[in-house]
């Protein structure tokens, strides 16, 4: 009877639904598989390690396990000259899935050439991956992907340790230190790449790694960057969005024949110049601008934005982005996407001040979610019943003391080997390309670092790599950036005064 009772109890436990079971992710685990991929016509062998690595507290106890996927080219033995790229996505609260299976990794999801979902869902080789020139690790911060805090950690402690700009930077820097040590990569050239909020993250990490862990980087890549703590309130914030409006209106054929006849990149400089030289001062003047001048500025804005002069005047030259997404195609019964305005949506009513939903994000979640779940379990052989969080619970997020743009500037000033590349999509309305340029100008107003900064624009949106042509171009830009920013053997990390002789060389002679 006792044996029967025990058997019945065991059956009941096994039969419990996953939601009723206590699911715990191991804080330290790995599964390694072997693969090959053809990149630019060459077959590349590599190992893929999917697993978790602990986040340690001050007493050396694990307080979280971060899920990561590490790709290492297996036919290269010289790690000292083999670059390592550490990749983060944003949110905050977003998994590393986006760049992992759609951009730089060796496998990408099945979508069409413009980024729209296709069925059957699946994974295919990425012929443009940067794995030919660099090893890559995709990292998921706490509560994103399969990463979790330990169950014994209180919500209050988790909030303090993980969920804020500076807390996030601090614990991830320590995690990277451990990872680099475990994988034997201290002598490798190192790069950080971040997308969206991930650009805030990696900008802060550049200085934190340098000052707290004495780990010096060769490059930082910002994909669709945020404001990085660089203030632009008032007229600057209101005006800087106009070049994005112009790009979107051009894509949807809403500009005059004169402007539509020009190529996108030939048209935008005119809008940028107007924004800086005329629109910012006009908005700053407010009512003192005068009605005639105000109407003249509104007419120029209408010319560049595809909106009516009347609507612009009703907003006093300050048209909110959400209204633009609703208004541009209102007469056709469509809205445009926030993160990628090539995508269009359908609202319940044509009236209103903002779209009902984000058509681009729903499209992306449609294709990415099944792909990453299939990939982790079937291709990487990492088995777990824990839910993969495309977006995880990290709120409230502490946004105070955001100095990440200046952190990156300081890291570059202290490290002559550190280079920066910014990648932006012209149709991104959340982290628009013109504000990405503005970041660079304001990070280094004196221009002393500009020779180590570069900007690349693409004819797509927030995740420019979803468009097949930009996937190829953007990866090639990263590849070139890495190859050019690794110093030649024996090249010292030092500044030289223009026109001044190297004193050490002079004395030696």
Could you characterize the architecture of this molecule?
- The structure is a single chain.
- The protein has helices spanning 2-14, 97-100, 155-162, 165-182, 197-212, 235-239, 242-251, 257-260, 264-285, 291-305, 309-314, 321-327, 359-379, 404-414, 433-443, 468-485, 503-508, and strands spanning 29-39, 42-56, 62-73, 84-88, 107-109, 123-125, 135-139, 148-149, 190-195, 219-223, 335-336, 344-345, 419-425, 453-458.
- A hairpin with a 7-residue loop joins β11 and β12.
- The longest helix has 22 residues, at 264-285.
- It contains 17 helices and 14 strands.
- The N and C termini lie far apart (97 Å).
- The protein has 2 domains: 29-230 and 367-485, 3-Layer(aba) Sandwich (Rossmann fold), CATH 3.40.50.1820; 235-358, no CATH class.
- α5 crosses α14 (404-414) and α9 (264-285) runs antiparallel to α10.
- By secondary structure, it is α/β, with parallel strands linked by helices.
Search tags:
509 residues, Rossmann fold, ten-stranded mixed beta sheet, 17 helices, 38% helix, globular, disordered C terminus
The gist of it:
By secondary structure, the chain is of the alpha/beta class.
CATH fold field value of the largest domain: Rossmann fold
CATH class membership of the largest domain: Alpha Beta
Q: What is the number of independent domains?
A: 2
Low-confidence stretches: 1-21, 501-509
DSSP E strands, number:
14
CA gyration radius, whole angstroms? 25 Å
Distance between the termini: 97 Å
Note the beta-strand portion.
15-25%
Q: Main β-sheet, in a few words?
A: 10 strands, mixed
What is the 3D form?
A: globular
Structural class: alpha/beta
Q: State the helicity in percent bands.
A: 25-40%
Total DSSP helices: 17
CATH architecture of the largest domain: 3-Layer(aba) Sandwich
CATH superfamily of the largest domain: Alpha/Beta hydrolase fold, catalytic domain
Keywords: Carboxypeptidase, Glycoprotein, Hydrolase, Protease, Signal
GO molecular function: serine-type carboxypeptidase activity
Pfam families: Peptidase_S10
Biased composition (Basic and acidic residues): 495-509
């Amino acid at each position: 009877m006792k044996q029967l009772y025990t058997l019945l109890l065991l059956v009941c436990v096994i039969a419990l639904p996953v939601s009723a079971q206590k699911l715990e992710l191991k804080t330290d685990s790995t599964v390694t598989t072997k693969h090959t991929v053809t990149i630019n016509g060459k077959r590349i062998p590599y190992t893929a390690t999917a697993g978790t690595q602990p986040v340690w507290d001050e007493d050396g106890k694990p307080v979280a396990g971060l899920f990561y996927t590490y790709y290492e080219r297996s036919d290269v033995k010289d790690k000292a000259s083999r670059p390592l790229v550490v990749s983060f996505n944003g949110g905050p609260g977003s998994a590393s899935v986006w760049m992992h299976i759609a951009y730089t990794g060796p496998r990408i999801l099945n979508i069409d050439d413009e980024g729209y979902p296709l069925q059957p869902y699946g994974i295919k080789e990425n012929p443009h991956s940067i794995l030919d020139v660099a090893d890559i690790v995709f990292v998921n911060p706490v509560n994103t992907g399969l990463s979790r805090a330990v169950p014994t950690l209180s919500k209050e402690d988790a909030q303090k340790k993980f969920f804020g700009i500076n807390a996030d930077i601090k614990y991830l820097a320590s995690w990277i230190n451990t990872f680099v040590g475990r994988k034997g990569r201290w002598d490798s050239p190192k790069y950080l790449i971040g997308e969206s909020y991930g650009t805030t993250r990696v900008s802060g990490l550049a200085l934190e790694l340098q000052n707290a862990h004495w780990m010096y980087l060769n490059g930082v890549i910002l994909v669709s960057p945020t404001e990085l703590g660089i203030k632009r309130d008032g007229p600057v914030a209101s005006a800087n969005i106009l070049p994005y409006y112009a790009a979107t209106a051009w894509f949807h054929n809403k500009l005059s024949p004169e402007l539509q006849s020009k190529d996108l990149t030939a048209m935008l400089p005119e809008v940028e110049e107007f924004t800086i030289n005329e629109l910012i001062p006009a908005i700053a003047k407010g009512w003192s601008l005068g009605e005639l001048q105000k109407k003249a500025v509104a007419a120029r804005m209408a010319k560049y934005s595809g909106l009516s002069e009347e609507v612009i005047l009703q907003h006093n030259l300050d048209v909110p982005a959400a209204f633009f997404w609703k208004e541009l195609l209102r007469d056709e019964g469509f809205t445009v996407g926030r993160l990628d305005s090539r995508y269009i949506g359908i609202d319940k009513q044509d009236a209103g001040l903002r779209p009902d939903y984000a058509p681009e994000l729903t499209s992306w979640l449609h294709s990415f979610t099944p792909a990453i779940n299939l990939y982790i379990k079937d291709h990487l052989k990492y088995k777990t019943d824990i839910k993969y969080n495309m977006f995880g619970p990290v709120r409230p997020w502490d946004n105070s003391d955001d100095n990440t743009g200046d952190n990156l500037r300081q890291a570059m000033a202290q490290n002559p080997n550190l280079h920066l590349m910014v990648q932006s999509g012209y149709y991104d309305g959340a982290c628009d390309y013109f504000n990405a340029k503005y970041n660079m100008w304001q990070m280094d107003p004196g221009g002393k670092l500009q020779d180590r900064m570069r900007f690349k624009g693409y004819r797509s949106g927030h995740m420019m790599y979803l468009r097949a042509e930009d996937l190829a171009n953007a990866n090639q830009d990263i590849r070139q950036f890495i190859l050019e920013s690794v110093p030649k053997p024996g090249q010292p990390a030092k500044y030289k005064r223009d026109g001044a002789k190297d004193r050490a060389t002079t004395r030696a002679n």
